C-alpha cells in the first residue's frame, strides 16, 4: 500500500512565557493509504500538536513531513491553505460548524474555497451528506441539529473535497456514548470505503474501532499496535 | 464568482447585527450627506454667478466718466460726462481687439399706458446694445440705425415693465407716454432676471440714444454719452482690448502729467470671474469641513470591523482550516467594510439631496448637485470603506489558523 503520511524526526518547541516547551521530541511514523489510525495519550503528551502538524495548521520546528510524497514543512501559508483544502479533511471535537448557515452550505464551504462551480458544489455536498445519512437535513441550520447530527455534518464537510486524509480531533469528545457509537459507525463506513483516517482520542473504546493505535507520551510515540482483522469484532457484528 | 460569494457572506454578517451595522453606517451617512449639502450650496452659488455672467454678456469692458479738472477745480467721478460720440467712433475704428461699442445714457421716468403707470429706468442706446448684452427680443423688433439717426420715438420694453403696464395685452404697436412724450412700442425684451448687483434688469425701457437725450433726459453737454460698453472679439483678446482702449482714450483725452485720467475703465467679466472663483473656493472649503465627518465615520467603521474580526476569530479559524487562503479572508472582511460604507454613502446621498432641496426651499438659497458630485460621493464612500476596512481585514487574514481555532 502507498504511504500517505511520512513523518521523520519531527520536533516542535513552543515558547510559553519564559520557558521553552518541547511538545514533540523526534516523532517518526508512516501511515499507509486506507488505514484507520487512532492516536492516544494523556493531555500534554503531544498528540494534539502532532495532529496540528499532520493537519498543516502548524509547522514542525525540525524534521520532515511528506504528505503523499510532497514535503509540506516549508510550504508558504497559502500553499498550506491549498493543501488543507484539497488533501485534508478536518473533524473537530467542537464540530466547528458556521452558525446561521445550513448543513449544505457548511459542507459546500471547502468546495467554495476550491473554486468548484455552484452546481457541482451542490451535488458534491448533497452526496457527502447522503454518505453520513443526513441528506434529509441538508437545509437545516446548524443550530437546529443535535450534537451527533452536527458532527456528522462536520464529517460530510471533511469528505466533500474528496481528501486524501481525514483528521479527527477527539470527534466524540463532546458526545454521549450512544451518539459516539453512531459517529464511530460513520468512520467505520468511511474506512470500509478505503478512506485514510487519523483520529485523536483518549477513550479506549473509541480507539478500539481503529486498525492501528499509536500511543504518545512526553512528545514521543511509546507504542504502535496493529490490530489483525482476525478475531476482532467491532460494532456492526464484523 | 468569488466576489459574489463574498458579497453574500458580507450581507449575511451585516444582517446578523442590524443595529450595529446601522449605527456604524450612520457616521458615513452623516458624512456623505453633509458633503453633498455643502457642495450643493457652494455649487449653487457659483452657478448663480455663472448665470449672471451669461446674462450680462461676455467679454465686456465698461467705460464711465471719471473726475475731471477744469481750471484747478476737481469734480467728483461721474459728475461731468467726459465720454463723447467721437470716442465711441474712434474705439470702433481704431481698436482691432474690439468687436463693438455700445454707448448709453441712463435716467428714469414715469411711463403711462392707458390707466396704468410705472416709474422705471430709461436707457438710451444704439442697436449694438442688444448684441453686446446678448439680449434677445421676445416680441416685435429691436432698435435700428434709423431709429437712432432720426431720433424716432420708438421704444423697447423690458419684460417686467411690459407686464406691469400691459398685463396680458400685446404691447407691440401700442403707444406709451414717457414724460408725456408719446412713444411707439416696437418690441419687448426677453426676461434676463437679476443683475450681478441683484436688481431686476427687466425694469427698463430702451430708447434710441438720440431720442433719449433730446426728448426725455436732456443733455447739457452736447455730443457726450453717459457710458459705454465695449465688447472684445474674444476672451483671449479681452486684456488686449483693455490696453488698446486705455491707450486710445488716454491719447484722445490728453492724459498725462498735467491732466489726470477723466474716465474709468472696468473689466466686468474679470470682476465676475473673480467672484465665481471665490464661490468655488467657498464650496471647496465647505466640502473639506464636511469631509472631516466622513473621516470620523471611517474611523467608526474601522473600529467596528476590528471588533467584528475579534468576535469572529473562531469562524476565521474554521475557514482557514478548511482551506481559505489569506486572500479569501481579506476579501471577505474588506467586502463587508465597503458594503457598509456604500450603503451609508447611498443613504447619505439621498439625505444630502433632500437636505439641499430643503435648504433651497426654506432659505431660498440656490443649490445645485452635479452628476460628478454624486459619482464622487459614491466613489469616495467606497474609498473610505477600502481605506478603513483594510487594516481590520488584514488583521483577520494574518491570523494563525491554530490560534484562531483555539480562540474562545
Task: Please give a structural write-up.
The complex is a heterodimer of chains A (238) and B (408). Chain A is α/β, with parallel strands linked by helices. Chain A is 33% helix and 29% strand. In chain A, strands 6-7-8-3-9-10 form a 6-stranded mixed sheet, sandwiched between helices. A 4-stranded antiparallel sheet of chain A has the order 2-1-4-5, with helices on one face. In chain A, helix 3 crosses helix 4 (118-131). Chain B has 2 domains: 2-52 and 274-406, no CATH class; 102-225, no CATH class. Chain B is built from 13 helices and 14 strands. Chain B has a 6-stranded mixed beta barrel with strand order 5-6-11-8-10-9, surrounded by 4 helices. The longest helix of chain B is centred in the C-terminal third of the chain and has 44 residues, at 268-311. Chain A binds chain B through residues 52, 55, 57-58, 77-78, 81-82, 84-86, 90, 92, 96-98, 100, 109-110, 112-115, 117-118, 157, 161, and chain B through 1-2, 5, 12, 16, 314-315, 317-328, 401-402, 405.
Helix content of chain A: 25-40%
Count of individual beta strands of chain B: 14
Determine the oligomeric state from the structure.
heterodimer
* Number of separate domains of chain B: 2
Based on DSSP secondary structure assignment, what is the total number of beta strands of chain A? 10
CATH superfamily of chain A: P-loop containing nucleotide triphosphate hydrolases
Distance between the termini of chain A: 23 Å
- Here the CATH topology of chain A equals Rossmann fold
Strand residues, percent of chain B: 15-25%
Count of helices of chain A?
7
Mean pLDDT of chain A: 89
Q: Most extensive chain contact?
A: A-B, 27 and 22 residues
- Gap between N and C termini of chain B: 32 Å
Number of helices of chain B: 13
- Shape designation of chain A: globular
- SSE string of chain A, helices as H and strands as E: EEEHEEHEHHHEHEHEE
